[in-house]
């Protein structure tokens, strides 16, 4: 899809993805974030969560990946412009299945006119319908090429 194909209020919902033990372990390894909430099952049994939880940034990464799987931004995406107001509402637990809803909240052409700016609201939801993360992620996209 190109800039002209988007309109404010459109929403797109991804497929689900189950967060696995492997996801959490690999994320801890490559990010170097080995804090106990993600890596120490024994100490987490006595925590407010009662078990290990996924890294917050793992949730954000999965949300971005699920949005990519929608296939609607891939051919026209130029640049990610920023992440604003990202919130962690609830923990993502190992075994949770999450999906992302992307709502177009704003759309404007750049001053050069050869691209557009999309304001997008991301909402990551678990299998129970609980919002676990949300925030705004801007994206610059191509306009439709001349025919």
Automatic annotation (TrEMBL):
Pfam families: MaoC_dehydratas (PF01575). Coiled coil: none annotated. Residues 8-110 form the MaoC-like domain. SUPFAM superfamilies: Thioesterase/thiol ester dehydrase-isomerase. Gene3D superfamilies: Hotdog Thioesterase. Belongs to the enoyl-CoA hydratase/isomerase family. This is MaoC domain protein dehydratase. The lineage of its organism: Bacteria, Bacillati, Actinomycetota, Actinomycetes, Micrococcales.
């Amino acid at each position: 899809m190109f800039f002209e194909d988007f309109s404010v209020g459109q929403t797109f919902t991804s497929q689900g993805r189950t967060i696995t033990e492997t996801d959490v372990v690999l994320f801890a390894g490559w990010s170097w974030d080995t804090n106990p909430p993600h890596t120490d099952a024994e100490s987490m049994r006595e925590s407010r969560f009662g078990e290990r939880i996924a890294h917050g940034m793992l949730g954000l990464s999965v949300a971005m990946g699920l949005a990519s799987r929608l296939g609607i931004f891939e051919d026209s995406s130029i640049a990610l412009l920023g992440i604003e107001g990202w919130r962690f509402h609830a923990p993502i637990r190992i075994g949770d299945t999450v999906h992302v809803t992307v709502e177009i909240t704003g759309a404007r052409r750049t001053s050069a006119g050869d691209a557009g700016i999309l304001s997008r609201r991301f909402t990551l939801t678990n299998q129970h319908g609980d919002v676990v993360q949300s925030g705004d992620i801007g994206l610059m996209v191509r306009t439709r090429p001349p025919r």
